[in-house]
Design brief:
Length: about 350
């Protein structure tokens, strides 16, 4: 593979990566790239893929903890069972990473702290900081004759205050699971409404086109899992084929160059034919990789029709004062149109 740069830059920057430097009358140098140089290019490409691949494609789940409900005129076994039902329903919502009771008790035990008897906000905040949760759910289950009343509060660990309280009745033990589902829906809805910016990561043009540098990532970013996986798989296969062909090509070339003088002409011919054959395979693999890459961008630019969350944006900067206005559409958990306006002052 040949590259061309100015002769003075050749000597300073590129000498370690090339086998041969040839200069012409205009001061340009032509360089025959060796394995070290190609390895550097492949390594750089792999690092770029890893960096872009690490960029989040979806919103991060919020870490929460559900403390065991305090039993009032009910057994401890029943309160623990209802607490587990609520944890299960919070997990099913898909928005949260919920700490299990055993995991939470183990962490608290290491810190010399117990959740037993923790029913106020200050205690919940302490537990939340220990287990690194953003929200803590505390409450109680009470029995009045044949009616069970579940009451739960949401405590914000950072603010140290109770943000919301919900309650649900169950007529008899058989309806406790239904009541648990109903109160969980209320809690999820409230947490979502109060923390929309956390749950909804905007799908932006910049994020879409930047990720599209790696075939498939742009499609995955906007929710096209099948197309994204197909392009990414095809590109990984083609790139792997190219890397393999590259090493086979240089192995064949080195084998040809290492034939001792005085060897039979047939040996030279065989090594040369193998070298040329591997060169054709290498060019074919590069062509396939390039075709996959171009098809990816064709899909990104002309066939895909992503719905970006921002439809309009107005930003102004005056000194250290920033004003931003944007609008768009969100569909989680229900379809809605939104408009955000914000102002900030940098000191």
């Amino acid at each position: 593979m040949l590259a061309r740069v100015r002769a003075d830059m050749c000597r300073k920057y590129y000498q370690p990566y090339y086998k041969r430097l040839e200069y012409n009358y205009k001061g340009w140098c032509y360089m025959n790239l060796n394995k070290r140089g190609m390895t550097g290019i492949i390594t750089f490409t792999a690092v770029l893929v890893l960096i872009l691949g690490a960029m989040p494609l979806r919103a991060e789940k919020m870490r929460i903890a559900v403390l065991d409900l305090k039993p009032k005129r009910v057994s401890k076994m029943m309160s623990n069972a209802v607490s587990d039902l609520i944890r299960s329903e919070m997990v099913k919502s898909g928005y949260f990473t919920v700490l299990e009771r055993g995991q939470m008790n183990e962490i608290l035990k290491e810190q010399g702290f117990q959740q037993t008897g923790c029913t106020d906000s200050s205690c919940a905040v302490q537990i939340g900081k220990i287990v690194s949760a953003r929200k803590i759910l505390i409450g109680e289950i009470n029995r009045l004759r044949n009616t069970y009343l579940i009451t739960i509060r949401i405590v914000d660990v950072e603010k140290g205050v109770s943000e919301y309280s919900a309650k649900e009745k169950a007529l008899g033990e058989d309806n406790l699971d239904t009541a648990s589902e109903a109160i969980t829906r209320k809690l999820v809805q409230n947490i979502y409404q109060q923390n929309k910016d956390y749950f909804v990561k905007p799908i932006t043009r910049t994020g879409y086109y930047t990720r599209s540098i790696v075939p498939g990532l742009g499609q995955l970013y906007v929710g096209e899992s099948l197309r994204g996986s197909a392009f990414m798989g095809a590109f990984i296969f083609a790139a792997g084929f190219t890397g393999y062909s590259f090493y086979k090509f240089y192995d064949a070339k080195d084998a040809y160059n290492s034939v001792p003088r005085g060897s039979p002409q047939s040996e030279f011919d065989d090594k040369y034919d193998t070298w040329q054959s591997q060169q054709k395979v290498l060019f074919l693999s590069i062509g396939i990789t390039s075709l996959v890459y171009l098809m990816n961008w064709g899909d990104v630019l002309f066939l895909m029709n992503p719905k970006f969350t921002e439809k309009a944006a107005l930003n102004s900067v005056s000194g250290h004062t920033f004003l931003a206005l944007d609008s768009g559409r969100r569909s989680v958990p229900s379809e809605e149109v939104y408009m955000n306006m914000g102002a900030s002052l940098r000191f």
